[in-house]
Structure formats: structure tokens, C-alpha cells
Write a structure and sequence with these properties.
By secondary structure, this protein is α+β, with helices and mostly antiparallel strands. The chain has 2 helices and 4 strands; from the N terminus they run E-H-E-E-E-H. Helix 1 (14-25) packs parallel to helix 2 (74-114). The longest helix is centred in the last third of the chain and has 41 residues, at 74-114. The radius of gyration is 21 Å and the shape is elongated.
């Protein structure tokens, strides 16, 4: 999995880059179909306080996940982003499992409604 990390209005230090790569790179354990991830860390001032916004775009086989997380600390922002991405990956995995189950349920109900039988038993 390729992880691309960029900074906006801030200098990305090596420890911040390594921390973000480690947190986002561990998502491959949840779903091995992840192709790449783009993470943007942005610094801005909101109501005279410093804030950081972490944004991620993750491509998973045929889907794309998008997530934003805002916090006063850059490391906490990365942690919150990782938690949100994990939740989205769990939801996506459950959604795909449900689609497969629905297809089987429809097939079984069609057999019972129309009296379809296995054609192999002739």
C-alpha cells in the first residue's frame, strides 16, 4: 500500500511523517484490498487558537473512502483520523458481506416461489 503524506501551511517533520505513515499503514491489517492512501495535514488558526485538520482519501479496490478530523494537537488529529477510517472500513466490509447474503436469500426464495429444482437431479 502506498501512503502519501503532505502538509499544508505547516512543515512536516520526520517524526510527524513517521507517525502518520505508521497509523495509516496499519489499516492494511483490516482490509488487504487497500490500494493507496493520501493524507493531508493542515494547520490553521480558528478563534485565535491553533488547530490541525487531518484529511484522508483511501482507495479500496472499487470504493473510495474520505475522512476529515480536526483537533488542537496534530498527533491526536492523526489518531482520530485513523479511528474514523477503521470505522468506515468495518462498515464497508459489512456492507459487502450483506450484499452476498442478500443474493443467496433471493435465489432461495425464487426456488420456493416458482418451484425451481436442481436440474442436476434428472
Amino acid at each position: 500500500m502506498n501512503v502519501q503524506i503532505t502538509g499544508k501551511n505547516m512543515d512536516l517533520t520526520d517524526p510527524i511523517k513517521a507517525y502518520a505513515e505508521d497509523k495509516v499503514g496499519n489499516l492494511i491489517r483490516m482490509d488487504e484490498r487497500i490500494i493507496d492512501a493520501r493524507v493531508t495535514l493542515e494547520h490553521f488558526r480558528k478563534d485565535h487558537t491553533d488547530s490541525y485538520k487531518a484529511t484522508a482519501h483511501v482507495r479500496v479496490s472499487h470504493d473510495e473512502l474520505h475522512c476529515d478530523y480536526e483537533h488542537a494537537d496534530v498527533y491526536a488529529g492523526i489518531d482520530g483520523l485513523k479511528d474514523e477510517l477503521e470505522r468506515q472500513l468495518r462498515d464497508l466490509k459489512g456492507k459487502q458481506k450483506t450484499k452476498g447474503r442478500k443474493a443467496g436469500r433471493i435465489r432461495r426464495s425464487m426456488k420456493s416461489i416458482f418451484g425451481w429444482r436442481n436440474r442436476e437431479k434428472k
